Amino acid sequence: MERLPSHDERANLLDALADLIEARGAATFVSAPLLEPRVEHFPDPWRADELGVERLARRLLTYVGLGELGVNVELFLGEATATKLDARGIASEWAHTGAAAWFAGIEAGTCYFGAAIGKLDEPDHLAGVMAHEVAHAYRHHHGLVVEDRDVEERLTDLTTIYLGFGILTTNASYRYRASGEMRGAYTRTSWSHGGVGYLSPQAMSFLLAAQVVARGREPRRQIAGRLEPNQASYFSAACAVLEGEPLAGRLGLPPSATWPAVVAPAPVPFDTSHDPPLVLDRDEVAQKRRRERNAGLAVFRVEDRPAWRTATGAVVGAALAIPAYSLVTLVGSLVVVAGGIALGHRLDRRRIVDRCCESDCGAIIPRDAAHCPDCGGTVSGRIAHRDERLAARERLAGEPGDDDDDDDEALESAE
């Protein structure tokens, strides 16, 4: 496995880092403390719930000078989750399955974050995950966001290095774990690997090395000792390559004599004296989040018409027609068959129900319900087929007072 990004990728990473330093200044890059998941940097006892994630996010926001912002946290199961809120605080964009966390914007001075329930038992890893999301908030607050989502995600990874989150996010980019146990005469071994972020572990390690080499303030061996084994190898290789590079000029750094000093973090622990009890029933939390997974999303009724309705009517009609054939003419029998079909249609009509349009739901929506009972979506009308739901949402998101006859036809009011 290559320990370094390609030559072209290394050049692109340094160029992007130089652009960020030019946009936001060199002071943070050269003087921000390199945070680690230890008590000196994160002194608060870990809570595996929304409050724990909220405090983690607030701590990280404080480190990047955004401590005045409020924080709102939602836990989710890893399904589609809000990533953007409109002016009314309603979700308007959604994340892909498997997301570890999300940042949904800043509204009225409050940052909206989400975190996967499955990450709550991994606070060290979650610190790196939330460092990426706080970097999103930093870029949002300072007007650095670019339109291309994939590019923005990679730039957000890079921004975590600039902010001093590099050890946290480089470790989060890849983790390998192995364990073993004896069962009788046999040894059972299990392992797992995974990571988060958009830049590769090699790229993240290279960027962290560029910061450490350019600063010349931190002992490299000590930094390598704080990294996962693979990342430590990549970091050491990158330091060796960058050693002879004129990084200060390449990154646009001012003379080192003008740099501010690195101030060791001295965070004040949060007051926990009035904390509510920790919710221990993880299954109950997971079920609650599942029922709320589409909360704030416009969903639509789709009529569920049983395909066998007419067939049932025909069977009823035929059953009535068979004895009638011996009593009346053929024409009379046909009339009876038609009547049977109508009767079957009427009987089956009682079985027609409205279902939620979402592919991950499809639950029955009661006649007078304002929200889907299974996913929590806001019932916003009726559509003929679930494939029409995206277009219907776009019409709903149009300007207030926008009169469009086609919209009126496609978006019938909920019964």
Rg, Å, rounded? 29 Å
The total strand number stands at: 10
Unreliable runs:
79-97, 176-195, 401-415
Major beta-sheet overview: 3 strands, mixed
Average pLDDT over all residues: 81
Query: What is the tally of helical segments?
Result: 15
Helix content: 40-55%
Domain count: the total is 2
Spatial ordering of strands, largest sheet: 1-5-4
Rounded to the nearest angstrom, the distance between the terminal CA atoms is: 60 Å
Overall geometry = elongated
Order of helices and strands: HHHEEEEEHHHEEHHHHHEHHEEHH
Describe this structure in words.
With 415 residues, this protein is α/β, with parallel strands linked by helices. The chain has two domains: 264 residues, no CATH class; 113 residues, no CATH class. It has 15 helices and ten strands. The strands form four sheets. It has a three-stranded mixed β-sheet. A three-stranded mixed β-sheet has the order 9-8-10, with no helix packed on it. Strands 2-3 form a two-stranded antiparallel ribbon. Strand 2 and strand 3 form a beta hairpin.
SSE blueprint and pairings:
Elements: H1 7-24, H2 27-31, H3 50-63, E1 70-76, E2 82-85, E3 91-94, E4 101-107, E5 110-116, H4 123-141, H5 149-162, H6 166-172, E6 175-183, E7 186-194, H7 201-215, H8 220-225, H9 229-242, H10 247-251, H11 282-291, E8 298-304, H12 309-325, H13 330-349, E9 353-356, E10 378-382, H14 389-396, H15 405-410
Parallel strand pairs: 1-5, 8-10
Antiparallel strand pairs: 2-3, 4-5, 6-7, 8-9
Helix pairs in contact: 1-5, 1-7, 3-4, 4-5, 4-6, 5-7, 6-7, 7-9, 12-13
